[in-house]
Write a structure and sequence with these properties.
By secondary structure, the chain is mainly alpha-helical. The chain has 2 domains: 91 residues, Endonuclease Iii, domain 2; 110 residues, Orthogonal Bundle (Endonuclease III, domain 1), CATH 1.10.340.30. The protein is built from 13 helices and no strands.
């Protein structure tokens, strides 16, 4: 598969390849959208909740993150100032359900400290920065990695930044459009370079990838029979023809 990089190729072949890739990526989007419908993400009531939730959901299920968020709200520490002023040990206990609670207490404190020092707790001003500048700034905050930064840019700032996760790697490597071992930035570029820069599209696409990865394109036992992507998926075609994976009918 050609790389989405200016590595000596002429502009015309690269642009032609991007257009072709964009067509394939949109075909995947339409197939899963037709199968599952709108997903109505992100599950947060405010941009601040989205930011904190994005930090807490690292290596944690959303149901456990919701428990942590509920604890913060119930004890009155769900604001940047309160997060800064709450002793770290106390904050860690409130975030116990999220796993890695000591580290996550440090991470949410670091975010709250950055927001206070640089913006006087004006989150709207921070989120109004251009997407790539905001992303770079977020990556400079302790505990915020690439996926978390993209979550915040997309779901809190409502700006186009494609989110890559384990489901993205699995699904698009099985489709033959990527390699599961690619670095994060290279896989993100696959979507950023070939798709329209549309936050609503990126929002829905990522949510649908998660839904499909959980329900169909599972890690060990994908349900390929009847999968909306099966006709264009080499793994799915082989699996259903050989009976290698369990189908929904069994």
């Amino acid at each position: 598969m050609p790389r989405l990089a200016h590595d000596g190729a002429t502009r015309e072949p690269l642009e032609t390849f991007k257009a072709s890739l964009g067509t394939r990526l949109m075909a995947v989007y339409h197939a899963v959208h037709q199968a599952y419908g709108p997903q109505h993400w992100w599950p947060g009531d405010t941009p601040f909740e989205v930011c904190v939730g994005a930090i807490l959901t690292q290596a944690a299920s959303w149901s456990n993150v919701e428990k942590g968020l509920a604890n913060l709200k119930a004890t009155g520490v769900f604001s940047p100032r309160a997060l800064r002023e709450t002793p770290q040990d106390d904050l860690a206990r409130l975030l116990y359900s999220c796993g890695y609670y000591n580290g996550k207490a440090r991470k949410v404190k670091a975010f709250a400290e950055h927001l206070g020092e640089r913006y006087g707790d004006d989150l709207a001003a921070m989120l109004a920065r251009p997407a790539e500048e905001l992303r770079a700034e977020l990556l400079g905050i302790h505990g915020i990695g690439e996926e978390t930064a993209d979550d915040i840019v997309l779901y809190a700032a409502n700006q186009p930044s494609f989110v890559v996760d384990a489901y993205t790697r699995r699904i698009f490597s099985r489709l033959g459009l990527a390699d599961e071992a690619w670095p994060y930035e290279r896989l993100r570029a696959l979507f950023m370079d070939a798709l329209p820069q549309d936050a609503a599209l990126f929002n829905e696409y990522h949510a649908l990838i998660v839904r499909h990865g959980k329900e169909r394109c599972r890690k060990r036992e994908p349900l390929c029979d009847g999968c909306p992507l099966q006709p264009s998926c080499p793994v799915g075609v082989e699996a259903t023809s050989s009976g290698g994976y369990r189908s929904l009918a069994k």
